[in-house]
Amino acid sequence: MAQTTNAEKPTVISKSPLVKQTIGIWTTVRFKESLVDSFKPTHYWAAASRYFTSLPVVRRFVVDVYTLNPPLVLLYLMGKAWKGIEPGITDYIRTVAIESMSEEEFRQDIVNNNLSGYIMDEYSKARKRLGTHFARNTLRELRLEAKLLVQLLRALSGEIPVLYFTYHALKDPAVHTMSSLAILRQQSSALITSVDMSFLMFSCIMQTLNNIQSLYKVRPLILVDGTIEYSPQKDCRSGMDLELKDVSFEYPGMKSGALHDINLHIRAGQLVVIVGENGSGKSTLIKLLSRMYDASEGTVLIDGLAIEEYRLSDLRDAMALLNQEHSIYPVSMGENIGLGYVACATDPEAIGLAAEKGGATEVLKSLDEGLDTVLHPVKTARGLELELPKHQVLEDILDGLEVQREVSGMSIRFGFRCLEVTVATAGEKQRLVAARTFMRLCSPKIKLVAVDEPSSALDPRGELELFSHLRAERVGKMMIFVTHRFGHLTCHADLILCMKNGTIVEAGRHEELLPLNGEYATLYKIQAQAFAPAQP
Ligand SMILES: Nc1ncnc2c1ncn2[C@@H]1O[C@H](COP(=O)(O)OP(=O)(O)OP(=O)(O)O)[C@@H](O)[C@H]1O
């Protein structure tokens, strides 16, 4: 057999990457401060993570090295844990994002766009993919913030079996052995887990009950669903026919009503503009027409039938509502727009076209990740807290891990990735929400388009383009606009409704209302005067 010379040995070692890396890490740790400073963190981390793929040596490594440099070992372990959970993070973030879409700020949008079914589906899909890996605030839950009562019960759960054993061992020493004590110990840790789980479940149930309670606190939200399918008559190709008979409405807790005795008929296919001072009831009127609320008195009729008779989901499917309370969902920009029409939610061409009509193309171009950008990323940065010495190399390694960290004095917090994205301006958000509405208009079911002050933050060109694009979509639909700026719309309106103190004070076309010199003429002239040449 050939003898191996001493000179050949290093070559043999270097052929095995695992051994080489192990020695590399070992050497580094042994020389600690002196060598660590000259070691490149990225290489270091890559080597460390590869090292950990070999499980049999992990235990040995930890035991040997922990005594030399505990912080570094903790870092390795954290890194390993990170690698393990990383694949689940996308699903975790998705779960939390979809879950947060059930919050109050998105309620109106979700209801308007009839998205509850989609959200439930997406949530259960993401949750399924996630399995049992994560719950809310993952790492914190793993540690389970121990409250006093929980601590007490945990302690008791651990000690009761031992007390039981001691009592019986004293009573009958022959029967009880050390192995029975071990079994009891095992059982007690199972008991502790059950206690922890019970408290976790209890807090979840309490949270759910609170949510349900707050949902039902607002009386007008409780709408009784109808049974009749809403399918516009075949000969009604121009949208909904809407009629209000003696309609009044008051919000709960409001001293005087928001609407009084409204009588109105809007024929299918008309383009209607509602104008009036602040608080005159314009938005409330839209909310009744779209059945966000039910009238306190009187009747709202759609195609001759009381609005309450129709199935709510059918009505929602037939309406596209764009209002001033624009909310951007905590999902990607593409999905934000796509959710306007779920059937085409992943069609990039339809999304691109909708973005163009909504004036959002430039906004999307300005975002680093374009349609994939998440404007309000889910905040998941709540993780383990380690007491580590402040050390440049450690900080560099943390940078390499791509985890969010906060360095405050001696402690370093680990958490999940939490990307900061440039927050869009109010005008940019309006454009994105408008794009979602244009996406919604792809649906052949839309018969009513109600647009409530969607351009308050848009520049004049953006506003003009938005209204022109909306008007271009009017075929087969009734369109209602609420606006304070008459310029682009009133001259195109088939019907202008001028409101004051919760009633319609004037109704007609621009050329009919102007000569009346009434409320409409006054509001119109105030705006027109702004463009008149200044008086000397
Ligand atoms: N959710 C609410 N709860 C209680 N009162 C409300 C609510 N929303 C509106 N109101 C009140 O109802 C009245 C009509 O409000 P509405 O929003 O319909 O007016 P508006 O003409 O659309 O006003 P603006 O031009 O400022 O948007 C106002 O007195 C307003 O304060």
TrEMBL record:
Q: Which Pfam families does the entry mention?
A: ABC_tran
Top-level lineage group: Eukaryota
Q: Which residues form the ABC transporter domain?
A: 242-526
InterPro entries in the cross-refs: AAA+_ATPase (IPR003593), ABC_transporter-like_ATP-bd (IPR003439), P-loop_NTPase (IPR027417), Type_1_exporter (IPR039421)
Q: Which UniProt keywords apply?
A: ATP-binding, Nucleotide-binding
Molecular-function annotations in GO:
ABC-type oligopeptide transporter activity; ATP binding; ATP hydrolysis activity
Name assigned to this protein: ABC transporter domain-containing protein
Biological source species: Sphagnurus paluster
**Classification of source organism:** Eukaryota, Fungi, Dikarya, Basidiomycota, Agaricomycotina
